[in-house]
Amino acid sequence: MVEPAWPHPRPPGYNARPLSQECSAVADATPPFDDALPEALRFRSPAPLVDIGANLTHESFARDLEATIQRARAANVSTLILTGTDREHAEQAVALARRYPGLYATAGVHPHDASQWSPSLAAAMGELHRAPEVVAVGECGLDFNRNFSTPAAQERAFEAQLGLAAQSGKPLFLHERDAGRRMREMLHAWRDDIPDAVIHCFTADRETLYGYRDLDLHIGLTGWLCDERRGHHLRELVGEIPLERLMVETDCPYLLPRNLPAKLKGRRHEPALLPWIVREIAHWRSVDEVDLARGTTATARAFFRLPTDPTPPDTEHEES
Ligand SMILES: [Zn+2]
After folding, report:
1. What family classification does the UniProt entry report for this protein (predicted)?
2. C-beta of residue 185 within 8 angstroms of C-beta of residue 37
3. Phi first, then psi: what are they for 52, rounded to 5°?
């Protein structure tokens, strides 16, 4: 299969590098992106949205980061939670959150990089979690789909980060792939000590979903269900996630929705396209897009304990 089954497939056009290294790769592989989105992809959400998973420190955004943030605002995606998947990228995410209003960061070590876990890394992460811009511990968790780090190393790093979450009092931003049972076991032991946790980019089955619901976890949905080849089971499940536990994310630059109404040069996903995903989820839940937008935003604001939205609804014509 050309298309990887992992929730972070590499967009075509990127150089082939091991996925575990993709975040630390230098920006020498930038595909030819459009400067503006094609007309048919200039969405505007009927209510402000929170993209809870945007990898804006990815090399592919280095060239047009400001424009990417502007396009998100024009689409009414007013708040972006930047995913920090290792120390370097978490520090970059914090720096961006300090620079741009409406941006926040997470700080964790991805299961792919779990073999790097060490006492000094744990100390650095603990320090990052004290920053007010860091609103969650993660991305961390378990990925037994590829085992870039051994399962034992993943469990060790995850266990340590569960401890850091308990210490910091901040919620967890979790990655799980083919490890639902072990994830539930480990979370169960810590559940009373951590305030909240979201399974980002949920793609698993009904049994796993209800296991997570039993633990009172939140669920993050991406454009996975926009894929007619592999999103079918999710389309049937989205109605079974309570609105007060549901949040939305692009997981950009990965997971470009497959059913967009126009082609995008470079095939890089970005926050401005989140309204399309919300529309799709609303369709499969048989609810209004505006209600879903409002509901997921209220859930995200409460989950990450965000202040009242500081961003004007439309900054398209703002002078810089
Ligand atoms: Zn992930």
Report:
1. Belongs to the metallo-dependent hydrolases superfamily. TatD-type hydrolase family.
2. no
3. -85, -5
Q: Report the largest interatomic distance among the alpha carbons of the chain, rounded to a whole angstrom.
A: 52
200 appears as a binding residue in the annotation: yes
Helices (H) and strands (E) in the chain, counts: 9, 8
Q: What total of structural domains would you count in the chain?
A: 1
On whether the CB atoms of residues 277 and 248 are closer than 8 A, the answer is yes
Q: What is the pLDDT of residue 231?
A: 86
- Pairwise CA distance, residues 215 & 55, whole Å: 27
Q: 3-class DSSP state for residue 81? A: strand
Mean pLDDT of successive 10-residue stretches along the chain, which has 320 residues = 37 33 36 77 98 98 96 98 98 98 98 98 98 98 96 98 98 97 97 97 96 98 92 93 98 97 94 98 98 98 86 45
CA of 201 to the centre of ligand 1 (A): 6
Ligand 1 center from residue 110 Cα (angstroms): 8
According to the annotation, is 159 in a ligand binding site?
no
Ligand 1 centroid, distance to 84 Cα (angstroms): 10
- DSSP assignment of 157-226, as one string? HHHHHHHHHHHHTPPEEEEEES-HHHHHHHHHHHGGGSS-EEETT----HHHHHHHHHTT-EEEE-GGGG
Query: 149: burial class by Cβ within 10 Å (0-12, 13-18, 19+)?
Result: buried
Q: Is residue 32 part of a domain?
A: no
Report if residue 314 sits inside a domain. Answer: no
